[in-house]
Amino acid sequence: MFRLLLAAAYILFNVLAAVAFASDRRRVICGEPKTPRRMLLTASVLGPFGARISISSTGCAIGRNWFILIYLAMAVHTSLAIWVFFYL
């Protein structure tokens, strides 16, 4: 039960990250104020896979440091997922 709840929360965080980045891109195109960087940074750390998919599908222009952070978060999340699902 614990693993299922953890997996559901993880999927939710990734979906929310994807929605946050897609919403930011839509707001830029429509001329509205951008989403604060702090919110996007938090979303990319909590849901790096959703953020990466959203960035590549919407063509969002982000800096090189963000890509490094997202890939680092992806590595950490993958390591934690392996540890949780195989060793707990």
Topology of this structure?
Elements: H1 2-30, H2 37-46, H3 48-58, H4 64-87
Helix pairs in contact: 1-2, 1-3, 2-3, 2-4, 3-4
Count all strands and give the number: 0
- Domains counted in the coordinates: how many? 1
How do the helices and strands follow one another from N- to C-terminus?
Answer: HHHH
Beta-strand proportion: under 5%
The end-to-end span amounts to 12 Å
- General shape: elongated
Largest sheet: none
* Helical content band: over 70%
Average pLDDT level: 87
Structural class: mainly alpha
Q: Quick summary of this structure?
A:
By secondary structure, this protein is an all-alpha fold.
Model description:
The chain is an all-alpha fold. It has one domain (2-87). Helices cover 84% and strands 0% of the residues. α1 (2-30) packs antiparallel against α2 (37-46) and α1 packs parallel to α3.
Tags for this entry?
88 residues; mainly alpha; 4 helices; 84% helix; elongated
